[in-house]
Amino acid sequence: MTGMDNDNGRHYDRPPLTVYLASPRGFCAGVDRAIQIVELALEKYGAPVYVRHAIVHNRYVVDTLKAKGAIFVEELDEIPETEAPIVFSAHGVPKEVPQAAQNREMFVLDATCPLVSKVHIEAERLFDGGREILLIGHAGHPEVIGTTGQLPPGAVHLIETVNDARKFTPKDPERIAVLTQTTLSVDDTKEIMGVLRARFPKMAVPRKDDICYATTNRQDAVKQIAPNCDCMIVVGSPNSSNSLRLVEVAERTGCPYAVLVERANEIDWAAFVGIRRLGLTAGASAPQILVDNIIDAFRERFDVEIEIVTTAEESIAFKLPRELRDVPAL
């Protein structure tokens, strides 16, 4: 075959490209569990299964579940009277939502990530202990709305930036506590925490970092890869907090060009002319098939060699709701 060495299948008529593939990447245990809950509910109870908010922040995942019979809504009042299951998304919900579902005698399957639930429990514990609660996070994110909604209105003060941390005035500097969204930039959060600790030495902090293991691991992998790459692609959706943070981490650690891409057909090929080293990872809500499609797209244009860069091994799995444990895994 012209332009190909048949011994190893490499195309010498295409420019060489080393793709540094991050490991770990893609689905975390919380996302995997949430998607399984919807799929197993469809298997056990049949369609429809209603899901409040996108189960995870990935359009491909949502569209795939829609095709199987899931119906996505933003609020419970969009759901008619039904005996069908109602699934709460992985991001968690304010307390008023399960209460409203209970008032309507809805059958609820809670897909909230257990690591998010841990933050909810901690928020209540600290508040009940008389602490004023600070939450480091992004305004409007569903996880922040859910965590804030565990406590009375006004009980949680959102800290988004270092400047917010410098300006915040507590009622009692010795009676405050801080929590964080689970999908933040590790470095940004450390900087904000540093300011708060310096200002409020007696501030209560989480027993263990609230930023989830998967967010930390994926950022660490990008830090390892990004300085050696001409470009970095993060596979993920624009409303995915952890995916957006991966782009920021890549830029900060020395990659000249980092971009978030949902699917292969969105790639701006002009930005990749002349590159020799590409970093590739995926946010915690992005499925592997989208990564594979992007690799295939690069293979059509480059002589690709894959180098997997492993910075951590992940073996965490979360239990399914009791109602679904008897359903054979799909």
Q: Can you put this structure into words, describing what you see?
A:
With 330 residues, the protein is an alpha/beta fold. The chain has three domains: 4-27 and 213-310, 4-hydroxy-3-methylbut-2-enyl diphosphate reductase, catalytic domain (Cobalt-precorrin-4 Transmethylase, domain 1, 3-Layer(aba) Sandwich); 29-112, 3-Layer(aba) Sandwich (Rossmann fold), CATH 3.40.50; 115-199, Cobalt-precorrin-4 Transmethylase, domain 1 (3-Layer(aba) Sandwich). The chain is built from ten helices and 14 strands. The chain has helices at 29-45, 59-68, 96-103, 114-128, 142-148, 162-167, 186-199, 213-225, 241-252, 288-299, and strands spanning 4-5, 10-11, 16-23, 49-52, 70-73, 85-88, 107-110, 132-136, 156-159, 176-180, 231-235, 258-261, 277-282, 303-310. It has a five-stranded parallel sheet with strand order 12-11-13-3-14, with helices on both faces. Helix 8 (213-225) runs parallel beside helix 9 (241-252). The longest helix is centred in the N-terminal third of the chain and has 17 residues, at 29-45. It is flat, with a radius of gyration of 22 Å. Residues 1-7 have low confidence and may be disordered.
